[in-house]
Amino acid sequence: MAEFYTVVVNRTDPAFLSQETRNYGLSLQFNDAHMAYCIIDYRLNKYILLHEFRRNDFIPKAKPGFKLSFEDFMRSVLNANPWLKNPFKTVRIAYEGKKSTLIPGPLFDAQEAEIFMKLNFQLQADEHVLADHLQQFDNYNIYSIPRSLEDSVKKLFPSARISSLSTILLQTVWMNFRTRINANRIFLHIKEKSFDICIYDGKLIKYFNTFTWMVAEDVVYFLVFVLEQLGMNPEQASVVLLGNIDRGSNLFELIYRYVKNMEFGRRNETFKYSPVFDIVAPQSYYPLLNFNSCGS
C-alpha cells in the first residue's frame, strides 16, 4: 500500500525494462525507516534507476491498534514494484546502522565479535552481531543489526548477503580517492539523522565513527571536537563532503565557518549514468552508487 511509505526519489531511465533484470545489478541500502536502491545495466556499465522510500509513521486508514512493521513497509514497496522480485545478475544489500567498530585483522576472532561490540555499545536482546572484512586495510568492521530487520530482508532477498553501509563507505572512499589520500584526509558523510567521520592516513584508517545529529550545530561540534582531539587544526584541515549536504545549505555554511578547505565528492567515473541522474547531486548516495566497485 502506497500509504505505508513516501517516495523520496524516483529517477528511472526510459530504457529500463523490468523483464531484463537478469542483465541488471541491484544495490540496496536500508535501515528501519527507509530504503533506497539503484539499478546498473551491466551491458552498458550504466546506472539507469534510483529510488528511495521513507517509511510512514502515521497510516491514515490503519485500523485501531495497527502497527506498521518493517516487513510491512518493505513488502508494500515490493508490491508496488513487483519487478524487484525478479532474478538479478547481482544483488547487493547494505544495512545503515549506527553501531560498528573496527578491529585489526590480527586481533579479530569471529567467536569474540559480540564481546568486542559490547565493549563499545549496549546491545539489545534482538541484535545480531556480524563482521565484514575490509581487505584493503586488513581490518574487520563489526556491527549489529536487529534480527527482525535482517530476517525480513532475507525473506525478500534470500540469496543476498548483507553488509554494513559503513563497510561500503570505507572501502569505496579509499578506492576512489587513494591517489589523493596522504596524511589526515578527512571525509564527512551526511545521512538523514546520523553522519560518519572517516580519516585516512595513506593506506590506514586513522579514525572512523558515526554520530547522531538533530541540528547542524551537532555536526559542527563533533567534527571540530574530533579534529582537535587528533591534534588537527580545523582551519587547515581538508574535508571531502559526501551524502545529504549541498553548497549553500545551512549545514554547509555553518561548517564553513570552521573548516575553510572543503570539496564535494564526485561520481565514480568507472560507471556511466543515465541523464535522469543529472538532478541528483554527485555527492549523494555515495556508498550506494559505488557498491558495485567493491567486492562485498
How does the SSE layout of this entry go?
Elements: E1 5-12, E2 24-30, E3 34-41, E4 46-55, H1 70-80, E5 90-95, E6 100-104, H2 113-120, E7 127-134, E8 139-146, H3 147-156, E9 162-164, H4 165-177, E10 185-190, E11 194-201, E12 204-212, H5 216-229, E13 238-243, H6 250-256, E14 261-264, E15 272-273, H7 286-290
Parallel strand pairs: 2-5, 4-15, 5-9, 10-13, 13-14
Antiparallel strand pairs: 1-4, 2-3, 3-4, 6-8, 7-8, 10-11, 11-12
Helix pairs in contact: 1-3, 5-6
For the biggest sheet, the summary is: 7 strands, mixed
Instruction: State the secondary-structure class.
Output: alpha/beta
Shape: globular
Supply the number of helical segments.
7
* Span of the ends, CA to CA: 32 Å
- Which percent band covers the strand fraction? 25-35%
Q: Name the helix and strand elements from N-terminus to C-terminus, one letter apiece.
A: EEEEHEEHEEHEHEEEHEHEEH
Fraction in helix: 10-25%
Whole-number mean pLDDT: 92
Instruction: Give Rg in angstroms.
Output: 19 Å
Residue windows where pLDDT falls under 50 for at least 5 positions = none
Number of DSSP strands? 15
